[in-house]
Amino acid sequence: MQDKEQASSLIDSAFAAHQSGDMASARMYGEKALQLQADYPDALHLLGLVAWSEKDIDKALAFIERAVELDPDEPIFRINAAAIHEKRNDFQRVVEHLRIAAQRAPIDATIRMRLARAEVKIGDNKAASESYETVCRLAPDRVDAVAGFVRSKLLVGSTAEAFQAALTARRKWPGDISLLKLCCAAAIQARNWRELLEVSALWRRADASDLNACRSLAHAYMQLRDAPKARDAFEPVIKVAAPAVADLSAYARFCLAAFDYAEAERVLGEVRKLAPDHAELQFAQARYDLFTGDLEKSERHFLRTIELNPDMPQSYVHLVSIKNGDIDDAMLANMQRMADDSGKQAEHRAALFLAIGAALHRRSDYPKAMQAFIKGNALTTDLLALEGSLYDQTRAEEERRRDLAFFKSGVTSSAGDKAPATPIFILGAPRSGTTLIESVLAAHPEAFGAGELGALPVIHDAAVAWAGQAGVEAFGDIPEEQRKAWRNEYVSGWPAIGEKKYIIDKQPLNIRSVGLINALFPEAALVHIRRNPVETCFSIFRNDFSSGWPFACSLSDTAHYYGEYARQMEHWRRELNDEVLLLQYEDFVENFEQRARELIAHCGLDWSDACLEFHKAQRPVATFSAAQVRSPLARQKDRVLERYGDLLAPLIVALEEAGVDLTTGAYMGEE
């Protein structure tokens, strides 16, 4: 008993010496304690600490591991053993020791925190998330624990939990930049683009020097389909002394999306000087050439992109479009490999499956093509579910009824500020021929094809929201001054059109805004292009609309959307009579010159023979039809229903239920 007491006293002296930095005395006391009491765990532990302080890691580990053997329930032994194993990068042993230490000291947040970090190191993110969660409960003010919990939950795919925890943490520690960055990561994985926009803006304001904040902000704007703001947000990234080639190429792509072709070409010129054979440059250049009409150059650049980086899915997708699905077996196999790779981004896999379907369609392998289309759309459906933006048929019907009641015909507005050009609105469902009609009009020397302008849908939603807040039941009851402001907002968002007297807007969402257009722009020309609904809907289903058009992922939803569109346009046909020119796509193609002349005359333009050779016009086109409109008009030889037969049965049934004429696309039901 006396020896044990003396040994304990010697250990106290040894620890005191160790604390003061007197390692020689600490060792002496520890060794004397071992002489008095063999295999004394505290003495072994102390001698291990001395050896560790003297950088003899192997000796330190031997002493402390022996102490653990003799007293496995002492947390401090295991904590220090774990620390030495960490120095040796043996994180599996670190975890083993800390898990037992945590069991022995269940309310010690520090042990749990160290355990969580070690579990991350060995890739056990599920266990790490549980450990971090325990720390958050034991020490709720530890921001590093909350951050670790969010990161680990993201890594195991528990997106909803991670996102909610990130939101809660951001509110609790609003000025913590590391949390803002983490919130951005969580928002991206949760596909909550509004939150990403808000947090990225906060991050940018909190640390203007961090260009990753600009990248994140630009990404948010692009996901929200505001390309001009994405371009502007990204601009500081390329203003540094030596911007990276990848950043310059990305900025060029933002410029293309914003229809800023001059700036895109300028930046691409800079990149060509720095790295003429960089994959990102080749890809951006290929897109530029595609949109501006040089299809041969575009194809060459996409092929070169694939040579430089065979794992860029978007290159294959664009190439399939340019070549109308005519690709070789090797390229198809490479696309299939990437599409089947669950490690690839879901958006890219979805686009690849749809492109594979297009290639199989070209080969007349229709059953396999349909399988590929279904797989691609299933992936997009999963993304829409994550975003909470799946197509809701009931809601779509409610919105149609609301819009038709709110934007009544007969509302008149004064001209407001004189517009620099007369608007021409091309109305129609996606893939119905709107790009063809725009191309014919834009070939006229007095008309400017602006593509799918985004302003009117924003104004439409703003007007509905304004009325809801003010308790106004009809657009005509909104003060004239506010209506003028919206008119001017639309005009101010136009691109530079030079001396052109007409500007063409083919935004598909404008079909819901015919009453708004009639009220704000009584001088505008309205053109409705309608196409066989089976062809239209199946074309929508086959193309990669990503999450922009939620209905596009399902044949039945696409048919339902088409039915809602057909109802809206039938309503406005009755209300506006001859003010809207109705063109049937099939008839327009069959009797091209006659119908083109009628189109030009309806829009108030004098005839120009250039309209007959629209495919030769040098102008940018940034839609799925970018390649098609560069070729002379061709008549369709056979219909998709003849090729796909029963595979299209769900579409046919849904169109009939929606009251749509299966030949023309007209609404045949009764209101």
TrEMBL record:
InterPro entries: P-loop_NTPase, TPR-like_helical_dom_sf, TPR_rpt, TPST-like
Keyword Glycoprotein on entry: no
Pfam families: Sulfotransfer_3 (PF13469), TPR_19 (PF14559), TPR_8 (PF13181)
Keyword Transport attached: no
Highest classification ranks of the organism: Bacteria, Pseudomonadati, Pseudomonadota, Alphaproteobacteria, Parvularculales
Swiss-Prot/TrEMBL TPR repeat ranges: 41-74
Recorded superkingdom: Bacteria
Entry-linked PANTHER family: PROTEIN-TYROSINE SULFOTRANSFERASE, PROTEIN-TYROSINE SULFOTRANSFERASE 2
Gene3D superfamilies documented for this protein: P-loop containing nucleotide triphosphate hydrolases, Tetratricopeptide repeat domain
Name under which the protein is recorded: Sulfotransferase
Keyword field: TPR repeat, Transferase
SMART domains: TPR
SUPFAM superfamilies reported for this sequence: P-loop containing nucleoside triphosphate hydrolases, TPR-like
